[in-house]
Amino acid sequence: MRAAVLHEIGQDKLDVLDDVEAVGFGPGKVKIRIRATGLCHSDISAMNGVLPQPAPFVPGHEGSGDILDVGDGVTGLAVGDRVLVSWLPACGSCPSCKRGQTQLCLASLMNAGTPNFKRPGGDVFGFAGTGTFTEEVVVDAGCAVPIPEDVPYEIAALVGCGVTTGLGAAINTAQVAAGSSVAVIGCGGVGISAIQGAKVQGAAQIVAVDPVASRREAALAFGATEALSPSELDDAKARITSGEGFDYVFEVVGKSATARTAYDATRRGGTLCVVGAGAMDDFFQLNMFELFFDEKRILPSMYGGGDVLRSYERAIALWRAGRIDLERLITHRVPLAAVNDALDQMRTGEALRTCITL
Question: Residue 154 in 3-state DSSP?
Fold first, then answer.
């Protein structure tokens, strides 16, 4: 079967091969025929080594498709079911799951060190224990979440990661209050989803901040009340908040420099929500006086900061009701053979989300 493979960390191109085989099928597992998969910035971060991932590997963790086969002991799933891929399913028994913080469950991430694929040259891993830039993948049954028949594969794929992450940051983690002021730094697919989440929550001002003009224009169409380049943020803070700072600021880039900018744009007593996934050697620094004196809440948001199954259901319900727009998040579509075009579209900021169809 075909799959896109990164041979070594640090390479910037994927190799689309037809000699890859999905492996590991057995009890507790399912095999999925991937129909659509989104390109998330985390895939690029894994390729360049910002996020830890053994290589060679198949990127992709934001996918949807149909169940091809079901292993022994699997219940609630059958051949032919339409599913989205959850890269962080809850085990239900670890301390995080028992506390109700299922988004912090580490059980599935332990599978990242087990190969999902093989080729004549040896084992191939799947990103985050999945790997959806492929025609077929074998995953734990918990990674396959049934979706209603009326949800297109492309929409379901986005719900599997980017939409859930951005919406959840605003709704679950920050719990944006109605009438509040919000700034979102970084307006790709996740940032736009955070904007939509803030709009659903009733924020009065939503300022989108991004260096790419096309993304700023798109942010306005998704609910931002203003869209600015990074150099304009200080002026907006002075004009909109009388210099006090925004009630909520979302950092959706994953860099300490933008986190610092976001902290400075947050009012005293306000909330900085860190959504971007950054590098282990990139340190965010505060002095102890400002940490105490400003009393700003710093809230990281992992995968939307809540139960992912409930978050999927909520995203689909909001989409059905017309409260959020998911179709227009997909600005580009390419076949698997053109996956490197998708990488270029994301790196340049041309795309909000590119959907790879299989």
Answer: helix
Which among 65, 63, 69, 68 has a CA at the least distance from the CA of 87? 63
Instruction: Name which of 353, 259, 257 is nearest 300 in CA terms.
Output: 259
Measured CA to CA in angstroms, residue 347 lies from 77, 110, 227, 234 at distances of: 37, 29, 20, 26
Contact in structure between 275 and 301 (CB atoms under 8 Å):
yes
Within 119-221, residue ranges assigned H as helices are: 153-159, 162-168, 189-201, 213-221
- First vs last Cα of the chain: how many Å apart? 11
- Helix (H) and strand (E) counts for the chain? 11, 19
Nearest to 139 by CA among 167, 164, 170, 116: 116
User: Nearest to residue 85, comparing CAs of 6, 139, 43?
Assistant: 139
Q: How far apart are CA 16 and CA 336, in angstroms?
A: 8
Instruction: Confirm whether pTM is higher than 0.90.
Output: yes
What digits encode the pLDDT tens for the residues 44-93? 999 999 999 999 999 999 999 999 999 999 999 999 999 999 999 998 89
